Amino acid sequence: MREIGQAEALLFDLASVFNNSSAGSGSIGEYCVSDAPSADAQTPDLEAKYRALLEQMPAVVFMVYLDRGISEAYVSPQIEAALGYSREEWLEDPIRWYQHIHPDDKQRWSVEAAEMFLTGKPLRSSYRVIARDGRVIWFHCDARMVRRDDGRPWFIHGVAFDISDLKRVEEKLEEERNFVTTILDTVGALVVVLDDAGRILRFNPACELTTGYSIEEVQGKCIWDLFLLPEEAARFRTMFEVLRADLLTQDYQSTWMTKHGEQRLIAWTSTLLHGNGGTSNYVIATGIDITERKQLEKAILDISAREQRRIGQDLHDGLGQHLTGIAFMAKVHEARLAEHKRSETEDATKIVKLVNEAIHKTRELARGLLPVVSDSHGLMSALQVWTAEVEDLFGVSCRFQCESPVLIHDVTTATHLYHIAQEAVNNAMKHGEAQNIVIELTADQERGRLAVRDDGKGIADVSERAQGMGRHIMRYRAGMVGGALEIQRVPPRGTVVICSFPMKDCG
Fold this sequence. Notes:
The protein has 4 domains: about 1-165, PAS domain (Beta-Lactamase); about 190-290, 2-Layer Sandwich (Beta-Lactamase); about 290-370; about 375-505, Heat Shock Protein 90, CATH 3.30.565. Strand 12 and strand 13 (about 445-455) form a beta hairpin. With about 500 residues, it is α+β, with helices and mostly antiparallel strands. The chain has helices spanning about 1-20, 30-35, 45-55, 80-85, 85-90, 95-100, 105-120, 165-185, 205-210, 215-220, 225, 230-245, 290-340, 345-370, 380-395, 410-430, 470-480, and strands at about 60-65, 75, 125-130, 135-145, 155-160, 190-195, 200-205, 250-255, 265-275, 280-290, 395-400, 435-445, 445-455, 485-490, 495-500. The chain has 17 helices and 15 strands. The two termini are about 80 Å apart. It holds the Pfam family PAS_9.
């Protein structure tokens, strides 16, 4: 507060000097002419040009001598356009400027002015001034105090630019930024902003909560070095390069490793934000943590599959065996009637036929509910049987190829893969009008591969966004076994559906 008091005291001392001085011409140009040596005859022209230059500037230019009167102060004509006061009105009260500073900025301006008076440092500041009509004008002021050779203060000169429009734009941008920040800070989705090198620039609170990392810990680091599993990092970087080239908006899933070693499955939607004026582009990634949802879906699907197996087993072992017993008894009864040449023999024969048909239908139903038997060869056996049935029923060539045994001990995984192949074959016949279909099953120690190829018309849209319940179900089943589904056109005609899956989860 001592500096503020000193600054105000200097201002009032300056006012007393002006008020006690004799009247003068009122312009800096005229003062300089009267006080300057007359050796150079061209000085008046130079001063006139200098004054004309000042008065053409789109800013308020001012100069105040600290040891002379008001007659030798100067303010450019722009003061009237800016604040509604004429030069004469403004200069007749040397502390008017201070009086019209906005109350919220007055203390700060006093401190900055005091620092200029006491230390000689330039004053560079932005503050509000109240105009004659009550409008609030933002000025950016750059002022300096010039000292004489002996160190005594001589005069202050400076320039003030009206930045009201700029401030209004800044305030509007600040409002929008606060609005966006509020959304980012409160939304439950994960939002990550990356630069064009994949480094993290923004990391909202939902990301911090999910991963356990703060923004300070991750800012400036590449996202694939922090969270992605090694097997997913390469795929993510490839996707990032495609997105950075602005080829398409990407939807994908990735597993994030949290700070505490927990794996979270995140479903992402990413897009490219173009920079302005040649600046760098940014990638905006929005993610939803679907870990619990996937666990619940898997649990529901497991329960459904388990119930299907139970019903299929009951049909096979319960109703099937019961019908088999009835058929045997009916057959015995038929033989006895035939021995006695009874007329009821023909009816008994019909009963035996109907019961056998019921047994056949029961077995087919049981096989549909339980297509893969519970052993490591179950998938291979089920696909072999399925391709033979397709050939018999639909009259197309359908072959199963498996050069080396692919042993899948997990019945649930085998069942999902079987249904993927089944759906792909059905699509090939129904939509592609294929005549030749091949199901291939291969594997190495790390990954397995199920491929269904056909020579049909070829699928029209192979993108992941393509409609079709069958494709959605195939992709869902592939995700449930930890795999990925890919659909490709095969020139000159035909389609291949490929499901790659980890073999480590099949044991």
